[in-house]
Amino acid sequence: xxxxxxxxxxxxxxxxxxxxxxxxxxxxxxxxxxxxxxxxxxxxxxxxxxxxxxxxxxxxxxxxx
Length: 65
Hints:
The protein has about 60 residues and is an alpha+beta fold. It is about 25% helix and about 15% strand.
């Protein structure tokens, strides 16, 4: 709904699953570092205009449901 509301306003709205990451929530046994968990978030945040919007991503891939 937010992505639809932002259409034509040069705003991209997406969701990201960072995966199981070593944080307070993920715990010390999680397989990836915070830096690794942030890769897809940074990748989406730095997309040029016209990038994806209204999607859900993990590991730089769109998750389909």
